[in-house]
Amino acid sequence: MPASLAWIAATPKLWAFLLLLAAVPAIVHDAYVLQVMCLAMLWTVFASSWNLAVGYAGLKTFGHQAFFGIGAYVSALISIHAGLSPWLTMWIGAVSASIVGALVGLPLLRIKSLPHLAIVTLAFAEIVRIICSNLVGLTRGELGLSGIAPFSAIPLPWGGQVGFGPADRQASYVMIWMMMTTTLIFLAWFVRSRTGLIVQSIRDSQVAAESLGVSLTRYKLLVLAISAFIAGAAGGVYAHFVLVLTPTSAMGIALMVQMTAITLVGGIGTLQGPLIGALVLTLSAEGLRLAGDHRMLAFGLLIILVVLFAPRGLARLDVLIADVQRQRAARSGS
Q: Under CATH, which architecture does the 3-252 domain have?
């Protein structure tokens, strides 16, 4: 196999998960189940953007919810006030998030201390959320921005059309699956490209990478811009999927905590980790609704158990099992 296509064979688990998810609309027709699955796939895209920055580049940023929210609000507001199609405005929102990410990254990446970088990025996201909350005349604040148009229907060559409204979640599922698949394919290629390997060398040792002539600021800004673009695109799709936005739901700290949990449970620094984590946590959260007031307690217990017994994430569970088997074999042999 050519070296340029080696990344395809290197990620068999990822392709298996994607193929399984592609078959869901043909089996499941319940709108509620499809909506939950759509949200899980959107969280996969968002968590993958954060995983690129933290898991592969080593940038301890906790402000990615700002990029998600910027993409969501920019797309929604332009669609409402300019009358443009969401198919266009979602990309405008993604580009806006990427530009903000690059501009914010210029001063932030001068901070050498990783804990301070984490705190400053979290503060940046909170500033964006507070500004959005106070612009009541534009965003309606916590009252909620409503009247957001869904994705416009696509006409079919043989007649009829494919709608993306709240009543038809199958088309939305296919669209979000395609977005998630494209994102993961791009990341699978990127992390194994020359640029991606340089980025990972920076994560492993900034001093060694810099001694070899690698421009740390250049590559960190590139990763932050790409990561912010992906998060902004996910935010744009989210806005035209749920059709109502509030600063808390689109860029609150709880959203970042959720993405962190998804990535850690799934496996940070792995391509399939955010996908596995999003499916497990999103579906379990919905399933635990029957627990009532004890739902969050059970949800937190699930996360603790995974972190304790699979600290490298569910994506590396097979490696953990193999290690345990080797240790048992070594003990029995001795």
A: Orthogonal Bundle (1.10)
